[in-house]
Design goal:
The chain is mainly α and about 80 residues long. It is built from four helices and no strands. It has one domain (about 5-80).
Length: about 80
């Protein structure tokens, strides 16, 4: 079997519809965005403390990956903002 055929069995190709459905499926972890969107010199949002890459990839992440991002962002927030 070709690699592409195997990959499509393991992980079906993403379409706009499946990405939309994944993002808005009940029970998925919602974005921690607080609508204060600006990146600092390290490419970290000053509102939610996610990196630019984490923000960009959010809709493609499963819940385990999203939880990991939230934990990392919370740690960044505690490090950079004593009130976070």
């Amino acid at each position: 079997m070709k690699v592409e055929a195997i990959a499509s069995i393991i992980r079906p190709p993403q379409t706009a519809e499946t990405t939309f459905n994944m993002a808005f499926t009940p029970g998925t972890i919602t974005s921690p965005c607080v609508s204060i969107c600006a990146l600092d010199k390290d490419d970290v949002c000053i509102g939610c403390y996610r990196t630019a890459k984490e923000i960009r990839d959010w809709l493609l992440m499963d819940d385990d990956e999203r939880l990991d991002v939230i934990m990392k962002a919370a740690e960044r927030g505690r490090k950079n903002n004593p009130f976070a």
